[in-house]
């Protein structure tokens, strides 16, 4: 299992290496005809092949690491205490990001990576941090009927499913519907 946990120390050679590798993977993802391999990442990034294997272990872990970084940077989860406002802001931004060029290629690479990674790696590197962020949002709003995992099921699952099918949800048309679904579930005493 790779030593890298998805969290990097700020600055220094480690951060420069990670940045170079992520930039290389983003470039390769923008070229759908190019296969994303450890050799291609090493060549494109200028990072030695053995460093890639020592730090990440395989190409799937690099793709998962990039995906975690991208999700964290592009879609931070607000937690102001106003559940409707926080969800609306987050969901709109998420749906807009899933319509950006190159997202389909990243999703395909992420699915391939998830298929190769162990179940523990998938949860630890991708899902668990988002569950924790969702739980913070719910805690700030003092919502106890649902938890962070349920928000993954109600928001991320449909958003990513439709994006993977090549029909990403429309941020202007679908945000309110997803938010209303979460609010209905959060209020349902059953």
Strand portion: under 5%
Residue stretches low in confidence (pLDDT < 50, at least 5 long) are 1-9
**Helix-and-strand structural type:** mainly alpha
Major beta-sheet overview: none
- Specify the helix fraction band: over 70%
Organism: Frondihabitans sucicola
Protein name: TetR family transcriptional regulator
DNA-binding region: 37-56
InterPro entries: Homeodomain-like_sf, HTH-type_TetR-like_transc_reg, HTH_TetR, Tet_transcr_reg_TetR-rel_C_sf, TetR_C
Task: Please give a structural write-up.
By secondary structure, the chain is mainly α. It has 2 domains: 12-59, Arc Repressor Mutant, subunit A, CATH 1.10.10; 64-187, Tetracycline Repressor, domain 2 (Orthogonal Bundle), CATH 1.10.357. Helix content is 71%, strand content 0%. It has 9 helices and no strands. It has helices at 12-29, 38-45, 49-55, 59-74, 83-97, 103-116, 119-140, 148-164, 171-187. Helix 1 packs across helix 4. The longest helix has 22 residues, at 119-140. The chain starts with 11 loop residues before the first helix and ends with a helix. Residues 1-9 have low confidence and may be disordered. This is TetR family transcriptional regulator. Residues 37-56 bind DNA. Residues 15-74 form the HTH tetR-type domain. Keywords: DNA-binding, Transcription, Transcription regulation.
């Amino acid at each position: 299992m790779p030593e890298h946990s998805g969290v990097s120390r700020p600055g220094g050679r480690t951060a420069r290496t990670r940045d170079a590798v992520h930039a290389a993977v983003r470039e390769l993802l923008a070229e759908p005809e190019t296969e994303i391999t450890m050799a291609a990442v090493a060549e494109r990034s200028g990072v030695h092949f053995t460093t890639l294997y020592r730090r990440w272990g395989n190409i799937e872990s690099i793709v998962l690491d990039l995906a975690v970084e991208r999700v964290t940077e592009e879609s931070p989860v607000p937690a102001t205490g106003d559940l409707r406002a926080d969800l609306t802001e987050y969901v709109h931004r998420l749906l807009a990001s899933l319509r950006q060029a190159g997202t389909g290629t990243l999703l395909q690479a992420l699915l391939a990576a998830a298929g190769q990674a162990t179940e523990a790696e998938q949860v630890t590197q991708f899902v668990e941090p988002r569950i924790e962020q969702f739980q913070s949002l719910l805690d700030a709003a003092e919502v106890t009927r649902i938890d962070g995992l349920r928000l993954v099921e109600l928001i991320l699952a449909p958003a990513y499913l439709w994006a993977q099918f090549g029909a990403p949800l429309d941020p202007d048309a679908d945000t309110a519907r997803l938010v209303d679904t979460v609010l209905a579930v959060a209020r349902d005493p059953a």
